[in-house]
């Protein structure tokens, strides 16, 4: 009986993969090509099968780019292929740039999901590696600052309920503990993200290495944004 249930679970997981719906594509950053030490850098966990905007605005000073992403999961000759389509327009139209990952060959040179004009604890984005995985719930490395974006589909009939759960999770931007992001433009400043031992998310912003301001950026589920809820927390 037990093996029958497991068999059914595998079947349903397979069919979800085949339709490319409802799975999360997780990008976990590492400094070396084995992806086996402590995660370090910027990562994402992104729902497949939906058009996603503003993936990077959190780290681009709120500056909105018109480009959008769509992730699709397909089977090809017994391999699971994760395709990321980066469209020039916000509604996933236009001619996309395509990145493909074979599920199982998981440690790759970091794909540029979002161009951020900065260095990350002294490294360029391109010197990072990324572990790519699929899961039914979003996954983040421990002890990281996560900004989650959730859809408004919250299950309450009048739409008034503020819920941020894995059921309406759309994407998360993940910054590992103590990552220092150094921007040169329009002036030189740094943002360091951290998690305190009791799980509060902080940013320490410094101008020219002197004037610093440390702020609590933890945010409970809020619906200020017209097209969804956001939440900032430590994983
Ligand atoms: C990126 O930063 C450099 C300085 O490091 C600046 O010269 C350049 O204009 C910036 N590019 C954009 C697109 O903001
Ligand atoms: C978390 O720890 C900080 C000091 O590190 C303290 O100021 C704050 O009150 C604590 N917060 C909670 C919710 O326990
Ligand atoms: C940080 O901010 C959150 C949300 O406003 C609040 O719930 C929490 O108590 C704050 N924590 C600290 C340590 O100030």
TrEMBL record:
It comes from the Eukaryota. It comes from Dictyostelium firmibasis. This is Uncharacterized protein. PANTHER family: CARBOHYDRATE BINDING DOMAIN-CONTAINING PROTEIN-RELATED (PTHR33576), TRANSMEMBRANE PROTEIN (PTHR33576:SF4). InterPro entries: CfaA/B/C.
